[in-house]
Design a protein that fits this description.
alpha/beta; Spore Coat Polysaccharide Biosynthesis Protein SpsA, Chain A; two-stranded antiparallel sheet; 10 strands
């Protein structure tokens, strides 16, 4: 089964004040946020693509080096970015969609989502302490709906419409709900206990 990982990285970092995707978590580790996010996704999928704005040259070079195929998009929101990625990977059997500003996500979590898709589950998402997070998995038959997304709503409307087909995977990976939105999130992130992985993933 061919599962494509999608990294959404076309945001404009308005609340951060600079390009957060190129920002390191700390002085001790200069790896950009987007690269950390990308590595967790890339390890657990067959193919990987990243959606970026055309002018993101530096980030494009970094993600290309991590094994990502690049999809340029003049994004007006997450819906536009996701639709562009879906259209660029039409032959995929399924997709696992991650965000480039979630550097704490563990590869084991992505692998659990991928495995549930391989088992035939239609929609898949991990949960941490009852809160649904990313990445989210979609079977290939959602191609038409995903490819028609627009604006900044992302796939929320699709998840709501097909909620009865959603498989939730409880986990101990706090990284599924931890993103970096503003520069004030960085100190908090560095003092937050790192997420730990347990094998307690169960498809409902």
């Amino acid at each position: 089964m061919s599962i494509t990982g999608i990294l959404l990285a076309a945001g404009r970092s308005v609340r951060f004040g600079s390009n957060k995707l190129l920002h390191p978590l700390s002085d001790d580790d200069e790896t950009p946020l987007a690269v950390l996010s990308a590595r967790s996704l890339r390890q657990a999928v067959t193919h990987a693509i990243a959606v970026l704005r055309p002018e993101q040259y530096q980030l494009a070079d970094l993600l290309r080096a991590e094994g990502f195929h690049l999809v340029p998009c003049e994004s007006h929101g997450m819906g536009d970015s996701l639709a562009a990625a879906i259209k660029a990977s039409q032959g995929a059997s399924a997709w696992v969609v991650g965000l480039a500003d979630m550097p704490f996500l563990q590869a084991e979590t992505v692998a659990a989502v991928s495995h549930a898709l391989q088992q035939g589950h239609h929609l898949v998402a991990p949960t941490y302490q009852g809160q649904r997070g990313h990445p989210v998995g979609f079977q290939g038959h959602f191609f038409t709906e995903l490819s028609q997304l627009k604006g900044d709503q992302g796939a929320r409307q699709i998840l709501q419409k097909h909620a009865e087909h959603m498989t939730l995977l409880p986990c101990e990976d706090a990284g599924i709900v931890r993103d970096i939105d503003t520069c004030h999130d960085l100190p908090q992130a560095l003092t937050y206990p790192p997420p730990t992985y347990t094998a307690a993933y169960h498809a409902d």
